[in-house]
Design a protein that fits this description.
mainly beta; 0% helix
């Protein structure tokens, strides 16, 4: 790799003065979560050369936002999800990153690399890696990463029961919002 670049996606809620909003509305906890009004990307490098062979690690550390992004300026593949190599390469297209998810990409830089949120705005720019020079383009194909060495699990000796009830605002579990279910 010519570069290993980390892109941390952020979703931030600002108040009327442009400062980080510290207020919480109870409704945030019973709907889609505490979604922000500003999405951005923090990049470990903001420059690459045309033809660079890079590993781009996309990380979504937000607790509530599912990012749906498109990356312009790269030709390559997704090679790992959450640090686990994929057995087959996955073509780049619109990518979904759930909260706490990571996607690793190996790709060649074909232009300015622009990360765009495709939902709900339809193309809001989150950040970019701008071209600064050029190198000879490589012809070697991108191959899957080797599998992680993970020990085989042992015999299962314990069990646990998990009881799930209620839902958004259901009073049956001490939530807030809607009252007890009438059905």
């Amino acid at each position: 790799m010519d570069q290993d670049i980390t892109a941390i996606l952020f979703d931030i809620r600002l108040d009327d003065t442009g400062q980080f909003d510290m207020e919480f509305d109870r409704a945030d906890f019973i709907t889609a979560g505490r979604l922000g009004d500003l999405m951005t990307t923090f990049l470990s490098s903001e420059q690459a050369r045309l033809g660079d062979h890079i590993r781009l690690r996309l990380i979504n550390p937000t607790p509530d936002r599912i990012f749906e992004i498109r990356i312009d300026g790269l030709t390559g593949f997704c090679v790992a999800y959450d640090g686990m190599p994929l057995p087959e390469l996955v073509s780049l297209g619109n990518l979904k990153l759930a909260p706490a998810q990571r996607i690793d990409i190996i790709a060649d830089v074909t232009g300015d690399v622009i990360l765009r949120e495709t939902v709900p705005s339809g193309g809001e720019e989150l950040g970019g890696i701008m071209l600064n020079g050029q190198r000879q383009i490589r012809s070697a194909p991108i191959a899957p990463l080797p599998a992680n060495l993970v020990p085989a699990p042992g015999e299962i000796t314990q069990t646990a029961d998990l009881f799930m009830q209620g839902g958004a605002g259901d009073g049956a579990h001490g939530g807030f919002g809607a009252g007890p279910s009438t059905t």
